[in-house]
From TrEMBL:
It is an enzyme of class 3 (hydrolase). GO terms for biological process: defense response; signal transduction. Keywords: Hydrolase, Leucine-rich repeat, NAD, Plant defense, Repeat. It catalyses: NAD(+) + H2O = ADP-D-ribose + nicotinamide + H(+). This is ADP-ribosyl cyclase/cyclic ADP-ribose hydrolase. Residues 17-183 form the TIR domain. Its EC number is 3.2.2.6. The keyword Plastid does not apply. GO terms for molecular function: ADP binding; NAD+ nucleosidase activity, cyclic ADP-ribose generating.
Length: 1096
């Protein structure tokens, strides 16, 4: 994507000029008073030119003055009483206005003790001056006219009038602020021509600073090392400091404090602010502090690393003048707590496009890769993951090198990180205490590697804290410190992530513990090094963690004492990430004689032994994971397992028994999925006082799960696919999720009523289940069930279903797929006012439906071919419109959609725009109030788009603006009608506002994605037609009519043609254009090949 964007990239740089401001004035009038005072004030802020010659030589201005005007970004013209008497000054003015026209020079007129109308109309003293010029220039009327025109033009510009001020110093102060503001707006200072991706960050931070308000504000720029905090701070300082009376950029606080001490750095801050010598003493005297409190200051404290440094440099807000601003750059969010009301801005990584530009600038001297280096450049930016420092360092390092050298360097980076990048990042690590460093190294070298073979390296924060606390690492506070120092991040779902550069930094730290001998390192993760270490028994007491992917090495035959030397091993994971390989390539021909008694985490996929020796001491073990193992049992007898919280033995096909876990009082999760030989569960498991989850799905020989103990903690049980299970009776105060799908139970025990918090109940394919005359709740309204899946329950009919639904007032999702004995839905379904999804697929006897609840969002009746669907389509259309019209703008999402998928072969008559083609071009429709579209697609008998989706692509004047998921996963035995709705997205709204027209010119294209053995492609085969129903914002339309509607009022279905008519009446548009939109008019599909090709 970045490479495609790169092709159109271009840049332009503003030419540099010698002066910021040129001052034009009449010397005799103002040189020694106002002009000198103004010059002093302006030149103190920017580079200013003022002609210091006391005498004007001749009428024409010198070439030096012409060049000075041309080399200035702005000109200040001081109109005084005698300004017009100077031919020199008038010629300067002409030149200044020429530069304004040709170069965009800023011109600011100052009317000093002169009425602007005298300048504009050449009256008063200006009339006298021109009378004199007329005598001197009898033969140059053209010159006089140019001077007059110049005066008139300049006087009409926005300027400053001295008569509006009583005090001249205030007059000068406001002029200077105006000059600086205009210069900063027109000519933003560039710290570095290679600044990329910073403009958006600059605007975001500038808005947070709220320049112009009189309160004192502090803003912290926070992020990982090398992410661009200092660069952003420099950009802000360069562009904004001129607006402040005092300013200081204190760079490298961490380094300077370490080298010279805190007092020297603080003295430097105050000396710079107060414009004193750096070696000045007594800089914080009361008189100096009063000066600071009266003047507006701009301070940047760069790379503040510790609370002590922050405390040392923090100037109380009361000691800074109104409007002062302080910016702090730091890697440690905790530092911000030292500053009053400090707002934090996280500086984030560059995106892919910006990363490629920055890398290429440093590698090639231009913003795109050289031909032949595209893939290598993509690899480099992938390694850097948006870190500007890394992008610059690698780009510079690769410059002038051959492709072969590039490939070698990129390969080297997988083993050895770049030293310069490593040293910068390691500063944050060095600030940690001992346990915090251990936590970071565990994450970088073990936990992140555990998940590296999947899509991400995320680790659940709670699991991490649990394991780290078992190692006495004070994990909750330690992880918070790492997050505050931007060494790790906490993402959605409370998952911990680490930037790959920081991960490599941590791994390099561990590698340096013993560069030549992996057996003397604390953490091991390299498969080849671990293979060698285990094969030759090189492990030592130094090793604390090992994560071994055996997929990348040859078969490994271990001796029984391969782990004997690793007495301090805390974490061990052995797995094979080749999912095609079902057997392990790690063998224990002589058994396993020893494992560390300090293990907290043991994960060994395809463990080759039938049991673990009972001599093992797992007292400190927190998690035990042995999936796809050869285990028949774990051990004999009872183990002391006070710390064990998690057991997973999934897919251990030979497992016949689970040991007594009464010695594991803290067990929370037991997962035995697909342990097909397991016939019974030890009673100690269900009696465990903290057990929360029990996964037994796929245990096909399990016949009974019963207990008389009422659990206080169990909230999830999964028995899906336990096909021999005929008895179930488990209750819990906390049970919210229960699946008995695919079991052989005949009836639900009355004990299910005691699960008072149950919200999800799955009874799919319980073909022997009979609920004749039974309720799921013995007290209407008590059971808070939200999702009920009865798909494939062949014993259920209409009467049974009535009893089941009675009392389930909170039900949102009801699945009745393949319930082949249901002929009609019971009437009480309309009472389910919270119902959102109703699945009636493959209900072959279903003929009719009662009135459905207005809350319904999704209705599918795929292949329920006896169903009369005309009234259903009308109901679902009304429901869709009701939702669209009553949903608040804040609640709307581009991901929101409702769907109806039922047998049928016609587009509903309410759709004004329809066709028998797969795409449609509709007439222009009003933009005002357009909020959504309802789509209709006719899919033909025999169509199979299983596991893929039907999509609609929307074009505005040929440009793709929106792509919507409509539906999918269908194999049809008759024609079907699919209805779906989608909100209009921002891109269409923005494009419409840019065009300036009052109407959209839209086209729509429907197709579905096919993934078959012979390839992947988009297809339209089997789509027999489509229709479009534009939906307009009801509230806007009713406001135009002068009416108000309540949110709960039912919306009467109108044709879209009528809506368009009403809108155009209000907008005073041409009604004749809408006449062809009458109901039933068919719009031809787009068949033009060129048009179709262009859209693809």
């Amino acid at each position: 994507m970045a490479m495609q964007q790169m092709m159109g990239a271009s840049s332009s740089a503003m030419p540099l000029k010698k002066f910021d401001v040129f001052i034009s004035f009449r010397g005799e009038d103002t040189r020694r008073n106002f002009t000198s005072h103004l010059y002093d004030a302006v030149s103190n802020k920017v580079i200013t030119f003022k002609d210091d010659n006391e005498l004007e030589k001749g009428d024409e201005i010198s070439s030096a003055l012409i060049k000075a005007i041309e080399e200035s970004y702005a000109s200040i013209v001081i109109f005084s009483k005698e300004y017009a008497s100077s031919k020199w000054g008038l010629n300067e003015l002409i030149k200044i206005l020429e530069c304004k026209k040709d170069q965009g020079q800023i011109v600011i007129p100052i009317f000093y003790e002169i009425d602007p109308s005298h300048v504009r109309n050449q009256t008063g003293s200006y009339r006298k001056a021109f009378a004199k010029h007329k005598k001197d220039l009898k033969h140059s009327k053209d010159k006089l006219k140019k001077w007059k025109d110049a005066l008139t033009e300049a006087a009409n510009l926005a300027g400053w009038h001295s008569q509006n001020y009583r005090i001249e110093s205030n007059f000068i102060k406001d002029i200077v602020e105006d000059v600086l503001k205009k210069l900063n707006h027109r000519h933003p200072f560039e710290v570095n021509k290679e600044l990329l991706g910073i403009e958006e960050k600059y605007e975001e931070t500038k808005s947070l600073l709220k320049i112009g308000s009189n309160d004192v504000r502090t803003l912290a720029l926070w992020g990982m090392g090398g992410i661009g905090k200092t660069t952003l701070a420099k950009d802000l300082y360069a562009k904004l400091c001129s607006q402040f009376e005092r300013h200081c950029f204190l760079e490298n606080v961490r380094e300077e404090s370490s080298r010279y001490g805190l007092n020297v750095v603080r003295n430097k801050l105050f000396s710079t602010l107060l414009e004193l010598r750096l070696d000045a003493t007594y800089v914080e005297t009361p008189i100096f502090m009063r000066r600071l409190a009266c003047e507006k200051s701009f301070i940047v404290l760069d790379d503040v690393a510790t609370l002590e440094q922050a405390e040392n440099l923090n100037i109380n807000n009361n000691c800074l003048g109104p409007g002062s601003r302080v910016i702090v750059t730091t890697r440690d969010k905790q530092v911000c707590s030292e500053f009053d009301e400090c707002e934090i801005y996280e500086v984030k990584e560059l995106d892919e496009y910006e990363s490629l530009q920055l890398f290429c600038l440093n590698a090639f001297g231009e913003k795109r890769p050289k031909v032949g280096y595209e893939k290598l450049s993509e690899s480099a930016i992938g390694y850097c993951r948006g870190n500007p420092l890394a992008l610059k360092v690698l780009g510079t390092n690769f410059r002038t090198k051959s492709k072969q050298a590039w490939e070698s360097e990129l390969e080297k980076l997988k083993k050895i990180p770049n030293r310069r990048i490593h040293d910068v990042l390691k500063l944050s690590f060095d600030d940690l205490d001992h346990t915090q460093q251990d936590i970071f190294l565990d994450i970088a070298c073990f936990f992140s590697m555990m998940h590296q073979w999947y899509e991400d390296r995320d680790t659940c924060r709670d699991d991490l804290i649990c394991l780290l606390d078992a190692c006495n690492f004070f994990a909750a506070s330690g992880i918070e410190v790492l997050i505050n120092k931007a060494l790790i991040t906490c993402k959605d779902f409370n998952c911990i992530d680490i930037h790959n550069l920081l991960q490599e930094m941590g791994q390099e730290i561990v590698k340096q513990e013993s560069p030549k001998n992996p057996g003397r390192r604390s953490r091991l993760y390299d498969p080849e090094e671990i293979y060698d270490l285990l094969k030759y028994n090189k492990g030592t007491e130094v090793v604390e963690a090992m994560v071994f992917d055996s997929y990348k090495v040859e078969n490994l035959h271990l001796s029984s004492d391969s782990f004997k030397g690793m007495t301090n091993l805390r974490y061990l994971q052995i797995r094979n990430t080749c999912f095609e390989r079902k057997s392990s390539n790690v063998y224990l021909p002589d058994g396993l004689g020893w494992l560390s008694d300090k293990l907290r985490y043991l994960s060994w996929d395809v463990f080759p032994l039938e049991s673990l020796p009972s001599t093992f001491c797992f007292e400190r073990l927190v998690q035990l994971i042995m999936c796809k193992s050869k285990l028949k049992k774990l051990w004999d007898g009872i183990q002391k397992l006070d710390n064990l919280k998690f057991i997973m033995l999934n897919d251990s096909k030979d497992l016949v028994e689970v040991p007594d876990l009464s010695g594991a009082p803290n067990i929370e999760v037991v997962s035995l999925s697909y342990c097909e030989s397991l016939c019974q569960l030890h009673p100690s498991i269900l009696n465990a006082p903290k057990l929360g989850e029990l996964h037994l799905n796929g245990c096909i020989n399990l016949e009974s799960l019963k207990t008389t103990t009422h659990s206080k903690s169990l909230y999830k049980i999964d028995l899906t696919g336990c096909s021999s299970l005929i008895e179930f009776s488990v209750t819990s105060d906390e049970m919210v999720w229960l699946s008995l799908s695919g079991t052989a139970i005949h009836e639900l025990a009355s004990s299910i009523w005691h699960n008072s918090k149950l919200t999800h109940l799955f009874l799919r394919k319980c073909q022997k289940l009979n609920i004749v005359g039974k309720k799921l709740s013995n007290d209407p309204g008590v059971m808070p069930l939200k999702k009920l899946d009865l798909s494939g329950c062949t014993q259920i009919d209409t009467l049974n279903l009535w009893h089941i639904l009675d009392g389930l007032q909170y039900l949102k999702h009801l699945h009745l797929k393949e319930c082949c004995n249901i002929e009609a839905l019971p009437d009480n379904i309309q009472e389910k006012s919270m119902m959102e999804n109703l699945i009636l697929d493959e209900c072959k006897k279903l003929k009719s439906l009662p009135k459905l609840p207005a809350s319904l969002q999704k209705l599918t009746a795929i292949n329920s071919t006896y169903l009369n669907t005309d009234s259903i389509q009308q109901t679902m259309l009304e429901n869709m419109l009701h939702k669209l019209h009553t949903k608040s703008i804040q609640d709307r999402s581009n991901d929101f959609y409702e769907i109806s998928f039922i047998p049928g072969g016609q587009v509903p008559r309410e759709f004004d725009f329809h066709t028998t083609e797969t795409s449609i071009v509709i007439p222009p429709i009003p933009k005002f109030g357009l909020s959504a579209f309802i789509f209709c697609i006719i899919l033909s008998e025999g169509l199979n788009v299983s596991y893929n989706g039907v999509y609609c692509t929307i074009y505005e004047r040929g440009k793709q603006v929106q792509k919507c998921y409509v539906g999918g996963r269908v194999t049809l035995i008759s024609d079907h009608v699919m209805l779906s709705c989608q909100y209009v997205n921002d891109e269409l709204v923005e494009l419409g506002s840019e065009s300036g027209d009052d109407h959209y010119n839209l086209s729509f294209e429907f197709k579905y994605y096919v993934d078959e053995d012979d390839g992947e492609f988009w297809s339209t085969k089997g789509i027999k037609g489509c229709g479009i129903f534009p939906v307009y914002d009801l509230k806007l339309r009713l406001e135009l009519d002068g009416r108000i509607i309540g949110r709960d009022e039912i919306v009467e279905l109108q044709s879209s043609a009528q809506v368009f008519y009403e809108f155009d009446q209000h907008l005073k548009l041409d009604i004749e254009e809408l006449q062809y939109r009458e109901v039933g008019v068919e719009i031809r599909g787009s068949n033009d090949e060129n048009d179709q090709q262009q859209r693809k």
